[in-house]
Design a protein that fits this description.
11 strands; 318 residues; binds ligand TUI; 14 helices; three-stranded antiparallel sheet
Length: 318
């Protein structure tokens, strides 16, 4: 069910990827998603290469299914990590927060499938020319570091602009979002926030509960004034940060304030002073489930929606 060029390219059962979320996407979560038939991804974040090598090795002990590593291109260790994923024979790399063009030739030489996350049509065209195997189109609904355009408007525009298969991300958390993404021209989805609220995510319970508690308008954007907009849940820290931005605080002062805040939320569960990166779909998430249950309910619900919509073709009312 739901075979596409993405499930074929990645050799996975369902075209569902787990976002490469710094501190959250560890080997435990990635292995659980891969074992459930999706593509689990270890996030390198800003961690040094040798730690990521260990994560890759631990993941391989938990699954023999395909998996990926996300390389955050603003990391000082990005180049080291490119070398390590080649050495460790990682099947798939996703990239974020920059243009991965200069790393693509080396990754391709080592048979690594390269899937950049891009927030615009122009960058999608550029990475296709550089040899990307597929692209993740991330709308501004996503958590963490974001672009400006919505998934709804961006996915069909990119689908018309490139030939490589597309994965939609940002604002997707259930079977409805999955099927909508396919309707827009994507051949797979990536979800981050939904997998934070999984049993297997090695994330402090306070962080998971903050997402469960969040309502539709609770995921706001900080850092618009710094050129690095980041979507996080409303809390003491994000409110103070926005107040400082509104007062015209220096960009470097603001950048310093962010250091260590994501780890503080994910590891220590400090939901007041930490950075609770999460997407707009937080308001939809009501339960912590296993990755297996999350993926199974998405494909079952999407399949039921196809049946529910089919009378429309015959001219009948829904
Ligand atoms: O990368 C993400 N989301 C992230 S990375 C991250 S780590 C971090 N931690 C603390 C502070 C700042 C970052 C948290 N969330 N998503 C993928 C993504 N990539 N979204 C947007 C982009 C992007 C932006 C610009 C991709 C390419 C790009 O290219 C600009 C250029 O160089 O042409």
């Amino acid at each position: 069910m739901f075979n596409t060029r993405i499930s074929e390219l990645l050799n996975i059962k369902y075209p569902i990827l787990q976002g490469g979320m710094a501190w959250v996407a560890t080997h435990q979560l990635a292995a659980a998603v891969s074992n459930a038939g999706g593509l689990g991804i270890i996030a390198a974040g800003s961690l040094p290469g040798e730690i990521i090598r260990e994560e890759i090795r631990k993941l391989k002990e938990l699954t023999d299914k395909p998996f990926g590593v996300n390389i955050m291109l603003m990391s000082p260790y990005a180049e080291d990590i490119v070398g390590i994923v080649c050495e460790e024979r990682v099947p798939v790399v996703t990239t974020g927060a920059g243009n991965p063009g200069k790393y693509i030739p080396k990754l391709k030489e080592h048979d690594v499938k390269v899937i950049p996350v891009v927030p615009t049509v122009s960058l999608a065209r550029r990475v296709e020319k550089f040899g990307a195997d597929a692209i993740i189109i991330e709308g501004t609904e996503a958590g963490g570091h974001i672009g400006e355009l919505t998934t709804m408007s961006l996915v069909p525009q990119v689908a018309d602009a490139v030939d490589i298969p597309i994965i939609a991300a940002g604002g997707i958390g259930d079977g409805r979002g999955f099927l909508a993404a396919l309707a827009l021209g994507a051949e797979g989805i990536q979800m981050g926030t939904r997998f934070v609220c999984s049993k297997e995510a090695d994330v402090h319970i306070n962080y998971k509960e903050a997402i469960l508690k969040a309502k539709d308008r609770d995921a706001l954007v900080t850092g618009r004034s710094t050129g690095h907009p980041i979507r996080v849940l409303k809390n003491k820290f994000s409110k103070e940060f926005i107040e400082l931005e509104n007062k015209g605080t220096d960009v470097y002062e603001l950048a310093k304030l962010n250091v260590g805040r994501l780890k503080l939320a994910v590891r220590s569960g400090d939901v007041d002073n930490g950075s609770l990166m999460a997407g707009q779909i937080s308001g939809l998430i009501e339960e912590i489930d296993t990755c297996e249950d999350i993926i199974q309910s998405i494909v079952t619900d999407a399949s039921n929606i196809i049946d529910r919509l089919s009378p429309l073709k015959g001219g009948d009312k829904l």
